[in-house]
Amino acid sequence: MAIYLSPSMLSIDFTKVGEQLAIVEQAGVPYIHLDVMDGVFVPNISFGIPVIKGIRKASNMVFDAHLMIVDPERYVEQFRDAGADIINFHVEATKDPAGCIAKIKESGAKVGITIKPKTPVETIKPYLKDVDMALVMTVEPGFGGQKFMADQVPKIAQLAAWKKEMGLSYDIEVDGGITLDNVREVLDAGANVIVAGSAVFGKEDIAGAAKGFMEIFKEYEAK
Ligand code: DX5
Ligand code: ZN
């Protein structure tokens, strides 16, 4: 199974966005993770549509948008037009997950459904047949640089088991507190899209950090 690194732009040096995006892209990183926060769904505000639109001109990476906003269906078209390739929405943030999935599909983007740590994984089971990705948060959403919650790993394993049982092919993304020291734990459980913010952009040697993850992925891809 192919495994993809999705470094979170939340931890980028915003005085050097173009430069640091080029560093990861040239290192062969396939995705860039874009954390959009509205100050309502989460107690923080990050960046939104104009920033994504701006960096789209500077990057050919897959834009993996993670919408931490209430009623995400309102903005699907704008994020798609800005350049999002994958749109992850939180199941807790909408009254109509099925409608949100339909809207994202209609836009032409891939659909990701996301759960916070306190949300049981069963909540998204009915939607798995209709999505391209399931995203398991391993920190409370809102901030980069938090500690990995190992108690969320069984959700990854459950999603991997359901994928097999139901003959589906969705990606399993994991986001929050991932480092070179704990990434094997989520890979062992069946994750194949790995978000890392501070463990990539927070490092002096950004390319080296990204390559460190991708070396580990190669071991798993060869299995
Ligand atoms: C948290 C965000 C994460 C975060 C990851 O709300 O969704 O993507 O930026 O950063 P690290 O890897 O530093 O936990
Ligand atoms: Zn995220």
Description:
By secondary structure, the protein is α/β, with parallel strands linked by helices. The protein has one domain (4-221): TIM Barrel (Alpha-Beta Barrel). Helices cover 33% and strands 19% of the residues. The chain is built from seven helices and eight strands. It has helices at 17-26, 49-56, 76-82, 97-107, 153-166, 183-189, 206-221, and strands spanning 4-7, 31-37, 62-68, 86-90, 110-115, 133-137, 171-175, 193-196. An eight-stranded parallel beta sheet has the order 1-8-7-6-5-4-3-2. Helix 2 packs parallel to helix 3 (76-82). The protein binds D-xylitol-5-phosphate and zinc ion (ZN). The site of D-xylitol-5-phosphate has 22 residues, from strand 2 and strand 8.
Share of helical residues: 25-40%
Radius of gyration: 16 Å
**Helix/strand order, N-terminal first:** EHEHEHEHEEHEHEH
Remind me, CATH topology?
A: TIM Barrel
Q: How many strands, what sense, and barrel or not for the largest sheet?
A: 8 strands, parallel
Structural class: alpha/beta
| Strand elements, count | 8
Q: Which molecules are bound in this entry?
A: D-xylitol-5-phosphate, zinc ion
Beta-strand residue fraction: 15-25%
Main CATH class: Alpha Beta
> In what order do the strands lie side by side in the largest sheet?
1-8-7-6-5-4-3-2
Which architecture name does CATH use? Alpha-Beta Barrel
Total DSSP helices? 7
Distance between the termini: 9 Å
Q: How many domains, as an integer?
A: 1
The coarse overall form would be globular
Mean pLDDT: 98
- The CATH homologous superfamily is named Aldolase class I
Provide the low-confidence segments as ranges.
none
EC number: 5.1.3.1
Active site: 35 (proton acceptor), 175 (proton donor)
Binding site for substrate: 8, 66, 142-145, 175-177, 197-198
Catalytic activity: D-ribulose 5-phosphate = D-xylulose 5-phosphate
